[in-house]
C-alpha cells in the first residue's frame, strides 16, 4: 500500500469512526449532554479567609 494511501485513509477512518460514535451517542438520547453534577461544593476555587 502506498504511503499516500495510509496518509489519507487513517485520518479519514478515525474521523468516520468518531463521527459515527458521536451520532450514535446523540441518537441514543442525550437530552443534556453537557450537564454536570454540581452536588459537590467547589472548595478548591474558594480562597481561605
Automatic annotation (TrEMBL):
This is Uncharacterized protein. The keyword Membrane applies. The chain crosses the membrane at residues 6-25. It comes from Streptomyces sp. NBC_01401. Keywords: Membrane, Transmembrane, Transmembrane helix.
Amino acid at each position: 500500500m502506498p504511503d499516500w494511501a495510509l496518509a489519507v485513509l487513517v485520518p479519514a477512518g478515525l474521523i468516520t469512526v468518531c463521527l459515527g460514535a458521536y451520532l450514535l451517542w446523540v441518537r441514543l438520547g442525550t437530552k443534556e449532554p453537557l450537564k454536570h453534577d454540581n452536588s459537590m461544593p467547589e472548595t478548591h476555587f474558594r480562597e481561605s479567609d
